[in-house]
Design a protein that fits this description.
mainly beta, 2 domains, two-stranded antiparallel sheet, 13% helix, globular
Length: 166
């Protein structure tokens, strides 16, 4: 006859085995979250509109500035805009350097971001998967009331506030 204590212990042991196997296998990705991102230097938000594409723009709380952040099993992130349903990624330009792109979301490396920490001062930096010496930055200059985006190479001697997001 099984006692309630034995049954409870067996159920607890089964739960531990399942949890351990998920951890060993990489585990499930965490639930998606809706976030917005502000560049440290100007305080502008990451924005994607049908009319102007990806850029930074004065923060206004609209869905053009809200991003569904999906965490993949390898801990990289996919950033999907709530209003446009497009993802931001990186692809090589003619010179062979990464450039920001946007388009249909998929599970490819080009639409996947590593989240890094700046050299000091807090915040995060977006590092395109496959281009670990580059990160997503806000360009100087006006672009339809906002600023364009670019990939800049990492440098241990320079802290780019244009590349730090909060």
């Amino acid at each position: 006859m099984r006692t309630p204590l034995r049954l409870t212990l067996r159920m607890a042991l089964a739960a531990v085995i399942v949890a351990t196997s998920l951890t060993i296998a990489g585990g499930p990705a965490s639930a998606d979250s809706i976030q917005f991102f502000k560049v440290d230097k100007t305080g502008f938000c990451l924005d994607d509109s049908q009319q102007f594409g990806i850029r930074t723009f004065p923060c206004n709380g609209s869905n053009y500035q809200n991003w569904n952040v999906h965490v993949w099993g390898d801990n990289t992130r996919q950033l999907r805009n709530i209003a446009t349903n497009r993802c931001i990624g990186a692809s090589r330009n003619a010179a062979g350097n990464p450039q920001p792109i946007y388009g249909p979301c998929d599970s490819s490396v080009r639409m996947s971001w590593i989240i890094g920490r700046p050299f000091q001062g807090g915040g995060i930096k977006f590092i395109p998967q496959g281009y670990d010496t580059w990160h997503l930055c806000e360009n100087a200059g006006n672009y339809e009331g906002g600023r364009s985006l670019a990939m800049w190479p990492s440098s241990a001697s320079v802290i780019y506030r244009e590349c730090t997001w909060r």
